[in-house]
Design goal:
The complex is a heterodimer of chains A (391) and B (340). Chain A has 391 residues and is an alpha/beta fold. Chain A is built from eleven helices and eight strands. Chain A is 40% helix and 9% strand. Helices cover 38% and strands 16% of the residues of chain B. In chain B, the strands form three sheets. In chain B, strands 3-2-4-5-7-6-12 form a seven-stranded mixed sheet, with helices on both faces. Chain B has a three-stranded mixed sheet with strand order 9-11-10, with helices on one face. A two-stranded antiparallel ribbon of chain B has the order 1-8. Chain B is globular and about 55 Å long. Chain B starts with a helix and ends with a helix. The chains are: A alpha/beta (391), B alpha/beta (340).
C-alpha cells in the first residue's frame, strides 16, 4: 500500500520528489542480518495478470509517454527547529536539551571560531603553512557530533571506507554508527556514488552527512550539479534522506540523533544534507572575493549565523549573558594561544621517521635508505636545519 | 652480454615458432592458405588458434604440511579461502559474483558454509569494492576483496595507491588497513583480448605501502595467498587465470604459509640468471632446458613471487648488482669479455 503511494509520488509529473521532510520508503519490517534479502515482495507469476514482472523494478505500467520532470524550483524542504532569532518554531520538535549540553554546544562552536581566527592569522604571519577555517559551518560539525556516541566512528571523507567500517561494525554487533562527512563538491566524486550504493545494498549503519555550503573552492553549486542538491540523490539509491538547516544546531542535532538511532536499529544508511554557507575563504590559499560578492558573504555573517542563533536561544533562556560572553571569549582565546605556543615549541619529527609505518615492518630496501640518509646527515648535516627537528 | 641476450631471444622465438609452425609457412601470402580451404580440419583450426602454449610443470608433492589432495589453481584458492574463513571469524569475502561461486569458481561452496554476511556480492564498482574493503580492514576485520579481472583494477587504482597504501603512514600508525587482501585473475589466456588478459603488476610495483604477489602454481598459490591474508599490510594477489584449470598438483589440505618477499631459486645455474613470475615461470623453465641443450648454457631460474617488496638479495646474489636480467657470469662472462 505504501509502495503505491510512494510510486505515485515519483511518477506524477511536475511534483516535487516529496511532500514531507523525510521520504518514507516502504521497508519490509526489521532489518539486519536475519532478514536482509530480498526486499521486494515476490509476485506470483500468472499469465492472466497484466502486472509487470521485471526483476529490476517494482512499479505499475503506464500507457502515457511522460518524462519525470526533476523539481529544482521546489526542492526537498529544509527542516529547522529555530528561526533566525533563535526561537523554537514548533515546540514538539524542541529537543529540550539540558542547560549544560546547550552550553557545551555553544562553547564548542565559539571555541572553534576562536581557534579559526587565531590559526588563520598565524598562517598570515608565516607561523603555520596552511589553514582552512570553518566560518559559518560550526553548527553542522557541533550539532551532528553532539548527537553521536563517543564510540562511534567518524570519517571526514573516505566515503567508501566509511561504508566498509559500518559493515564491519554491523557484523560485530558493535552498536556503533559510522558517520561520514563530505561537501557538496565531494558528492560529485565517484566515491560518493559507490559509497551510497554499497551502503544501501549491503545495509550498513552509516550516516552520510553532506555539508552543502554553496561552494567547492570557487565552483558554485549551479556548476556542481543540476538536480535538487544532494538529498534528492538519496532516494535514487534507496536511502532515507533529509535536508536540514545546517545553521540551526538543534535541527542538525535532531536529525543526526534520529538517524543514528535508526541506522543502528535497522541497519540502513541515512543521508543528511545540511544546508549552510561558507563564510570564509576555502583556505588560506584562496581569496573568494575573486568569485563572489562581499555583500553575499556579509548577509550570512550578519543575518544567519549558527553561533548567533544559538546565542539568541541561550539569552532567551536566561542561560547566558554579556558578561559570560566576554569572560568566555577571553578564556577561549587564552586556551587556544597556550595550546598553539606549546605546539610551536615542539621540534619536528626526526627524519628517521620518514621511513617507518610505510609497512608494518620496515623492509630491507627502506632500512637501507634510512641508513643512507643517516650517513648523509652525519657528513652534511650542517646544510640542513636539523636544529628544528627532534634528535 | 648482447650475444647472450640475442641468443635467448632467438630461443624464445624458436620455441614460439614450434607452435606457430602452420602460420610461418604461409608468411607473406596474406591469409593462411588453409583458411578457406575446404579440406582444413577442425584440429588444424583449433591448433592455429592456440598461438602460445606452455607446459605447466608441477612441483614435487610437498611432504611437510600433512595430507595433500590433487587441486587445480582455483581449487587451491578455494582451499586457502576456506581455511581463512574457518580460522578468522572476522574474515569476509566480497566482490562481483562471488556469492554463487565466482566466474572462475574460486569461491564455490563458501557462502553456504560461512553465511551470506561473510561471502557476498557487491555492486559492479571496483573503486567501491576496494574502498569498502579498506573500511572493513580499518576496523581490524579481515577483508578479502575480489576484482573480477585484473584489467578492471584501474578504477580502484586511486583507492589502492592513495588510500590503502598510505593509510598507516599518513596516520603515523594510528590506523591501518593491513588486513585487506585484493585477489584478481591475471594474465593472458590467448583469447582474452584487451580486457581479460592484462598483467598490471608494473603499475603497482613502485607503490610503497602495498605488497604484490603472483604465484606460479596451486601449491604456491595457497601458501602465498594465506600469507597475504595474514600479512599486516594491504596485499594484491594476482592469480594467473590460464592456470586455473591447466595447473594441477598435490596441495596440502591444512593451511600453510609461504613467505612473502622471498624469491625462489627453482633451478640452480652458473651462466645466466632468468627471473620470471606467474605463468612465465613455466615458459622460462623450458627456455632454460633449451639453452642447456642447444647452447650449452647453464641457467639459474628464479621465481620472483613477490613483486614489491622484492627479494633483491636472491636475484642479485649471482647476477651483477648493477644490471639485472640476463647477464653472463662464469664461462659466458669470459667469452663475452673476449668479444670486446
Amino acid at each position: 500500500m505504501a509502495v503505491a503511494i510512494a510510486a505515485g509520488k515519483v511518477w506524477r509529473p511536475n511534483r516535487g520528489l516529496s511532500q514531507a521532510a523525510v521520504l518514507l520508503l516502504w521497508r519490509p519490517g526489521a532489518r539486519g542480518l536475519a532478514r536482509s534479502h530480498p526486499h521486494r515482495q515476490q509476485q506470483q507469476f500468472s499469465s492472466l495478470d497484466d502486472k509487470p514482472q521485471f526483476p529490476g523494478a517494482s512499479a505499475e505500467f503506464i500507457d502515457k509517454l511522460e518524462f519525470i520532470q526533476p523539481n529544482v524550483i521546489s526542492g526537498i524542504p529544509i527542516y529547522r527547529v529555530m528561526d533566525r532569532q533563535g526561537q523554537i518554531i514548533n515546540p514538539s520538535e524542541d529537543p529540550h536539551l539540558p542547560k549544560e549540553k546547550v552550553l557545551k554546544l555553544y562553547k564548542s562552536m565559539t571555541l572553534l571560531n576562536t581557534m579559526d581566527r587565531i590559526l588563520y592569522e598565524s598562517q598570515r604571519q608565516g607561523r603555520i603553512s596552511f589553514y582552512m577555517t570553518n566560518y559559518g559551518e560550526e553548527g553542522t560539525h557541533v550539532g551532528s557530533a553532539a548527537a553521536l556516541d563517543n564510540t562511534d566512528l567518524v570519517f571526514g571523507q573516505y566515503r567508501e571506507a566509511a561504508v566498509g567500517a559500518a559493515y564491519a561494525a554491523k557484523r560485530a554487533n558493535a552498536n556503533r554508527v559510522v558517520i561520514c562527512y563530505f561537501g557538496e563538491g565531494a558528492a560529485s566524486e565517484g566515491d560518493a556514488h559507490a559509497g551510497f550504493n554499497f551502503a544501501a545494498t549491503l545495509e550498513c549503519p552509516i550516516i552520510f552527512f553532506c555539508r552543502n555550503n554553496g561552494y567547492a573552492i570557487s565552483t558554485p553549486t549551479s556548476e556542481q550539479y543540476r538536480g535538487d542538491g544532494i538529498a534528492a540523490r538519496g532516494p535514487g539509491y534507496g536511502i532515507m534522506s533529509i535536508r536540514v538547516d545546517g545553521n540551526d544546531v538543534f535541527a542538525v542535532y535532531n536529525a543526526t540523533k534520529e538517524a543514528r538511532r535508526r541506522a543502528v536499529a535497522e541497519n540502513q544508511p541515512f543521508l543528511i544534507e545540511a544546508m549552510t554557507y561558507r563564510i570564509g575563504h576555502h583556505s588560506t590559499s584562496d581569496d573568494s572575493s575573486a568569485y563572489r560578492s562581499v555583500d553575499e558573504v556579509n548577509y550570512w555573517d550578519k543575518q544567519d549565523h549558527p553561533i548567533s542563533r544559538l546565542r539568541h536561544y541561550l539569552l532567551s533562556q536566561g542561560w547566558w549573558d554579556e558578561e559570560q560572553e566576554k569572560a568566555w571569549r577571553k578564556q577561549s582565546r587564552k586556551k587556544v594561544m597556550e595550546a598553539f605556543e606549546q605546539a610551536e615549541r615542539k621540534p619536528k619529527p626526526n627524519p628517521n621517521l620518514l621511513f617507518s609505518d610505510v609497512y608494518q615492518e620496515m623492509p630491507a630496501q627502506l632500512r637501507k635508505q634510512q641508513e643512507s640518509l643517516a650517513r648523509h646527515l652525519q657528513t652534511y648535516g650542517e646544510h640542513y636545519p636539523l636544529e628544528h627537528f627532534d634528535k | 652480454m648482447a650475444f647472450v641476450a640475442a641468443a635467448a631471444g632467438w630461443l624464445l622465438r624458436l620455441r614460439a615458432a614450434g607452435a606457430e609452425g602452420h602460420w610461418r609457412r604461409f608468411h607473406g601470402v596474406g591469409l593462411a592458405r588453409g583458411f578457406l580451404h575446404p579440406s582444413a580440419t577442425v584440429e588444424d583450426a583449433a591448433q592455429r588458434r592456440q598461438v602460445a602454449h606452455f607446459t605447466f610443470q608441477p612441483d614435487p608433492e610437498p611432504r611437510e604440511y600433512g595430507q595433500t589432495q590433487k587441486m587445480n589453481l582455483f581449487q587451491s584458492i578455494t582451499s586457502a579461502l576456506d581455511n581463512s574463513l574457518a580460522k578468522d571469524p572476522t574474515a569476509v569475502i566480497f566482490g562481483e559474483d562471488v556469492a554463487f561461486g565466482g566466474v572462475f569458481r574460486c569461491t564455490v561452496g563458501l557462502r553456504d558454509k560461512y553465511g551470506k554476511d561473510r561471502v557476498f556480492n557487491t555492486p559492479l564498482c571496483e573503486q567501491g569494492i576496494v574502498g569498502f574493503g579498506i573500511g572493513i580492514a580499518v576496523t581490524g576485520a579481515t577483508a578479502i576483496a575480489e576484482i573480477q579481472f585484473a584489467d578492471y583494477i584501474f578504477p580502484a587504482f586511486d583507492q589502492i595507491v592513495n588510500e590503502a597504501a598510505k593509510y598507516r603512514y599518513r596516520s603515523g600508525d594510528l590506523f591501518n588497513c593491513g588486513s585487506l587482501t585484493i585477489r584478481s585473475p591475471w594474465g593472458c589466456v590467448g583469447h582474452g583480448a584487451l580486457y581479460h588478459s592484462q598483467s598490471p603488476e608494473a603499475f603497482f610495483a613502485h607503490c610503497p605501502g602495498i605488497k604484490v604477489v603472483i604465484p606460479r602454481s596451486p601449491f604456491q598459490a595457497k601458501g602465498l595467498l594465506l600469507s597475504c591474508i595474514e600479512d599486516k599490510n594491504p596485499c594484491i594477489f594476482f592469480e594467473p587465470k590460464i592456470l586455473y584449470r591447466a595447473a594441477a598438483e598435490q596441495v596440502p589440505i591444512e593451511p600453510y604459509n609461504i613467505p612473502l618477499s622471498q624469491a625462489e631459486v627453482i633451478q640452480e645455474g652458473s651462466d645466466v640468471t632468468l627471473v620470471a613470475w606467474g605463468t612465465q615461470v613455466h615458459v622460462i623453465r623450458e627456455v632454460a632446458s633449451m639453452a642447456k641443450e642447444k647452447l650449452g648454457v647453464s641457467c639459474e631460474v628464479i621465481d620472483l613471487r613477490t613483486i614489491i617488496p622484492w627479494d633483491v638479495d636472491t636475484v642479485c646474489k649471482n647476477a651483477d648488482p648493477f644490471s639485472l636480467g640476463l647477464y653472463p657470469t662464469g664461462k659466458m662472462k669470459e667469452e663475452t669479455n673476449n668479444l670486446y
